[in-house]
């Protein structure tokens, strides 16, 4: 896997929205944080653009992201908003220049579509908080992003407080993202390969039976059988039907992977939660789950 160049003070970050519409005012706090880190930014044409719920048409959003990829002065591309819409522009993008000079693509949730596609190009990406609401997340959220972008050594260690966690050690490239997006990409040229890799999943605002359906789809596609480990982040604001499904989202995942032997942890600090730690997708990592702690080590 190829790691994009790390940033230094004075570098230029491109800010775009590949999905829902958003104004500059809504990301002002995040932009101020970039300046505090010593970085400069340029706003793409999608910031402030509008077509129904999208940040401009598919053509506008694709062209905006393409220009950021092709501009040699841009050292990282930070997505300002999630929602839905990134998958609609994937087939309109040309990654030829990007493959020659990779740059960090930053975001999560709907940005999983980009993470997955770029992973097939064997280039690392940064699963991290979108610019919107960055200033209101935990201190660890912004510190983790800054540390990675500037090339600092990075690891995550948290207490093991979950009864469903399965202890063990796994080593492999980290992949994944939003479960709904991974599910939607199955069968396409943007779908990730998961054998011998550590898979991270998270989701928001889903019915419990949807979680079961999506996990069963991943299982039947062979994406859960040969993992080196599974990390489950926030399963946030889940909904139940009038007739209860009978399990939490975590219990659904646990049951579906119960026949496998790799380490598994739940409620990891990443996803649609206040403590949304950055993850380097494509990086070879070590996951260590003991009775007392969960540790994730990212090697340079």
Task: Describe the protein.
- The chain has helices at 28-36, 58-70, 96-100, 112-119, 139-149, 179-185, 208-220, 249-256; strands at 12-16, 40-43, 74-79, 104-107, 125-127, 154-159, 168-178, 198-204, 229-236, 264-265, 279-281, 284-289, 293-298.
- By secondary structure, the chain is an alpha/beta fold.
- The protein has 2 domains: 12-152, 3-Layer(aba) Sandwich (Rossmann fold); 155-298, LD-carboxypeptidase A C-terminal domain-like (Glucose Oxidase, domain 1), CATH 3.50.30.60.
- Strand 4 (104-107), helix 4 and strand 5 form a beta-alpha-beta unit.
- The chain is globular and about 50 Å long.
- 48% of the residues are buried.
Could you list some keywords that capture this structure?
Rossmann fold, Glucose Oxidase, domain 1
Principal-axis shape: globular
Second CATH tier, the architecture of the largest domain: 3-Layer(bba) Sandwich
Output the structural class.
alpha/beta
At the fourth level of CATH, the homologous superfamily of the largest domain is LD-carboxypeptidase A C-terminal domain-like
Low-confidence segments: none
Total tally of structural domains: 2
Strand tally: 13
Helicity, in percent? 10-25%
By CATH, the topology of the largest domain is Glucose Oxidase, domain 1
In angstroms, what is the radius of gyration?
A: 18 Å
Roughly what is the average pLDDT, rounded to an integer?
A: 97
User: What is the chains' assembly state?
Assistant: single chain
Proportion of residues in β-strands? 15-25%
Largest sheet: 7 strands, mixed
Which helices and strands occur, and which strands form pairs?
Blueprint: E1 12-16, H1 28-36, E2 40-43, H2 58-70, E3 74-79, H3 96-100, E4 104-107, H4 112-119, E5 125-127, H5 139-149, E6 154-159, E7 168-178, H6 179-185, E8 198-204, H7 208-220, E9 229-236, H8 249-256, E10 264-265, E11 279-281, E12 284-289, E13 293-298
Parallel strand pairs: 1-2, 1-3, 3-4, 4-5, 7-8, 8-9, 9-10
Antiparallel strand pairs: 5-11, 6-13, 7-12, 12-13
